[in-house]
Amino acid sequence: MNILEAYDTAIDTEKRLSNLYYRLSNLFKNNTETHNFWTSIADHEKSHCETLTLSKGYLLWSHPSVKQAVKQENIFSLNRSEITGLEALNLMIRDYERKLKKELPSLQDALGVLLKIENSELNHLYNRLIRLSGVKLPQKPENAPSSIQEHEKVIKAFIDKHYRGNIPTACIEDYADTKPAPSNRENGVTGKIAEVVPDMSYGFIDGDDGERYLFLPEDILQGNWEDAEVNKSVEFSVVRFPWGSRAKDIKMW
Fold first, then answer.
1. Could you tell me the residue ranges of all domains in the chain?
2. What digits encode the pLDDT tens for the residues 103-140?
3. 3: burial class by Cβ within 10 Å (0-12, 13-18, 19+)?
4. Which CATH architecture fits 182-252?
């Protein structure tokens, strides 16, 4: 699954989730607190759908060559585990949509499904797609929580009050903004530049550890973007994100 297919799948998933949660808000409309909770969750997923659509459009507009690049090189493809996770999530959503057509769900059952969805990789994939597109979202004050963190806090507060099951709430700290903790940084990694795409301002490094790392022009500490050539030896630090590894502080030899 390449990056454009990933966008389309994520957009469709967010749209279906929004519709599902709006349906639940109507089914629980006699309880104001519960109705408002599902409405807020539905609004959040709707905003994700709109932002992903904007991001895909921005990617294609700002990098006209991306379609051809995807066809030729399958750039930014999802790995098998990510694809399997998305497929399993969509099957679960379809099953629950069918269930809602036949019977009125209990609040406990609905919250259990919500927690399974929140514990999937969808939020991490959303973050990954937004950042890869390069679209500039409205700036928040420094150290302000992200929209996903705020979303998880709303869910946690409601779950703590009403849920009686044993499915864990997603960890809010997992969705902190992109600045990594020092423990996530590995220094002194070596390798060679494997690929450079000048028109799209990104490249990949094949590390001597056997792993491939994304890098951007701003990740170069010693040397310039114009110096980045295939097979050039480099030393760099590695930052581990939930959506993949990135080379930072790159020194070219």
1. 3-175, 182-252
2. 888 999 999 999 999 888 788 788 878 777 666 555 55
3. buried
4. Beta Barrel (2.40)
